[in-house]
């Protein structure tokens, strides 16, 4: 099959396809135009650019396609090199090529408010670490001492545990007790050193709340009424997040502007 000598190219104005008025007269520019020129040179064809309105394409109320997908479905455009997000429903009228570039998405929120200064004392460790540390400090030494170095009934064991009775002198002189005590002092030193090192780094910056880090956090913030998700009307981002089957990438509320 011979490649056509002329093609109608459907395009949409975007940050990859735009008018460049800095040259003599306005001309089309952008990465989409560069790709189109490269294809025309390699495949030896001429082209006419057809500017399409109504976005990338969606189904309107009467069931027909509008936008770029509609233009290509009706034969008003043969190809398009413009960035057109791949959606399953658009594959009914558009035959996509292999992707030649990808776009990473992010979202912007207000800077989280500063935390109270005393939070710096708690930030070096996570909650689970603090709980384990407090349990080990308050409970483990007495439990091990009473369980290992005393021969006693369970009643005496709990009484000594609660009252934190000291070890008899004969027990303190034993090698096993010294090893136990030394290991405890070593772990205590490591914990102190780790905490001191980490807290110094936190003192150099203003502590702030965690804020919104991903779509799941954003969905929770929107559900609680703390945030609003604002998107341009017809944005593929909103379509993807609303229709997503993954619970980590789904939003229930979008405000269009």
UniProtKB/TrEMBL annotation:
Membrane-crossing residue ranges in chain numbering: 118-144
InterPro entries on file: Glu/Gly-bd (IPR019594), Insect_Ionotropic_Sensory_Rcpt (IPR052192)
Entry's localization field: Cell membrane
Gene Ontology, cellular component aspect: plasma membrane
GO MF annotation terms: ligand-gated monoatomic ion channel activity
Name the record gives this protein: Ionotropic glutamate receptor L-glutamate and glycine-binding domain-containing protein
Naturally occurring in which organism (per UniProt): Araneus ventricosus (Orbweaver spider)
Keyword list, A-Z: Cell membrane, Glycoprotein, Ion channel, Ion transport, Ligand-gated ion channel, Membrane, Receptor, Transmembrane, Transmembrane helix, Transport
Phylogenetic lineage: Eukaryota, Metazoa, Ecdysozoa, Arthropoda, Chelicerata
Lipid bilayer topology: Multi-pass membrane protein
Principal location listed in the UniProt entry: membrane
